Known about the structure:
The protein contains six helices and five strands, in the order αβαβααβαβαβ. It is α/β, with parallel strands linked by helices. It has one domain (51-179): Hypothetical Protein Ychn, Chain: A. A five-stranded parallel beta sheet has the order 4-3-2-1-5, sandwiched between helices. The longest helix is centred in the first third of the chain and has 25 residues, at 2-26. The radius of gyration is 20 Å and the shape is globular.
Amino acid sequence: MKTWFFRGAVVLTALIGLSSSLLGQTLPIPDGEVAKDVPGAKELPDPNMTYKVVFDIAAAAPKVDDVNPGLTGVVRYVNTLAKYGVPANHRMIAVVFHRSATNIIVNNETFKARNQGHDNPNLALIQSMKKAGVDFRVCGQAVLAHKIDPKTIMPEIELDLWALTTMVNLQLRGYVHVAGE
């Protein structure tokens, strides 16, 4: 009896360790936030649903060294979908940068030249999000207005004609529009 109990405890401990390590591995954006659990919550992400969402990020971060808060909101959303079992092929997430958020889309060298030597705090996060399947777009009209050389745009970000066109086209393709934080 004691041997059976001991073996069961060992197996249970191993499974708990395995499940917690798998949970950490399932997050598509490592070290990113996840929505906190709310006991009794009625609406939760549905693994059978396909989430087509376009995030509209138009505002800059409060300080040049801050990560854009709109990006952290997207990270939290993507990681929360994954935490609740929504598979990668059911997470169709796009981000459209325009207006004052446009300045973060340039490579680090260009960002430093435009911001008194400050590194682009968004670079690593955008790269991590892209690996997780997030699609990035930037408004061509904003690129022109901010006098950004298209060659300096991060390779993870696609240049579109106009943010309005991108957002309307994506919504007509079934994406839900979410204004940035």
